[in-house]
Amino acid sequence: MDLFDCHLEFGRRAVPPLRFAADASAAVTLLRELGVARALAVHCSMHELHPAIGNARVVAETRGTPLEPTWALLPPCTGELGTTDAFLAGMRDAGVRAVWVYPRSGRFALTRATLEPLLSALVAHRVPLLLNMMSDGPTGVGWPELTAFLAECPAELRVLAIIHQFWGEDRYFRPLLAAHSGLHLGINAYLPADGIATLVRDYGAARFLYGSSYPEHQPGGSLLALLHAGLPDDATAAIAGGNLARLLSEVTL
User: Fold this and answer.
1) pLDDT-based confidence at residue 1 (cuts at 50, 70, 90)
2) What is the pLDDT of residue 156?
3) Residue 62 needs a FRET pair 20 to 30 A away by CA distance; which of 7, 42, 126, 203 works?
């Protein structure tokens, strides 16, 4: 089974957590301990300093490793990350196939108007947009905020919302799964009894992805929950890495 973590962060934060991966080498060591083949990687400076700094760091430090870099975006109106065409060309050249949005740390509103024309370009090129679903914290987005954002965005937008609440937020996200076919969930901290099996029963396996969200969470918890969810082998394999690999393979930069 090809395990592909949809969210792993490395780098030393200003206030480090108890356990963290200081650099890409430490992150790769962690993957090997877990038996995980690869991961979508974030460098903490992408949200703690500035995307222009963090985006360059994550690309440089993951080169030649099983960590695939992601980038953080900013509203195009300030021109801090260049034009939309330049941003996309930089992604292509760096091998970046997914982008994060951090409205709180970036101090901007999560709206279509704020992110255009970059948002339409991401839709056209099938680039997944990643968000941390947290009611607080500098990198988080709340479910009501995401609900309003999806309501104004094209149906083709691909969103990967990372779950950080152990006990489930189904009343928030189930209506969104039903209404927005491009919404996918990273079940990184989704641990209700029979929760994963029930989601797969109701929506199929293709909309859900395994991830650790390390260092926010202990890295083996979500993997243990997935492997013991009682799913058919093909569903487990899809969530463990196949769905993420498929989404990234469909990016057309």
Assistant:
1) confident
2) 96
3) 126
Cα distances from 73 to residues 8, 21, 70, 79, in angstroms, run 18, 23, 10, 11
Peptide linkage before 219 cis (omega within 30 of 0): no
DSSP structure class, residue 77: G
Nearest Cα residue to 36 out of 188, 184, 201:
188
Map out the domains of the chain as residue ranges.
4-249
Q: What is the DSSP string of 214-248?
A: BTTS-TTHHHHHHHTS---HHHHHIIIIIHHHHHH
Q: Is 39 helix (H, G, I), strand (E, B) or coil?
A: strand
Q: 130 near 39, Cβ under 8 Å? A: no
Tokens representing 230 are: 């009682």
C-alpha angle 74-78-80 in degrees, rounded to nearest 5: 65
pTM value is 0.95
Instruction: Write the DSSP assignment of 183-210 as a string of letters.
Output: EEEE-TT---TTHHHHHHHHH-STTEE-
Residue-wise pLDDT tens digits, 102-117: 999 999 999 999 999 9
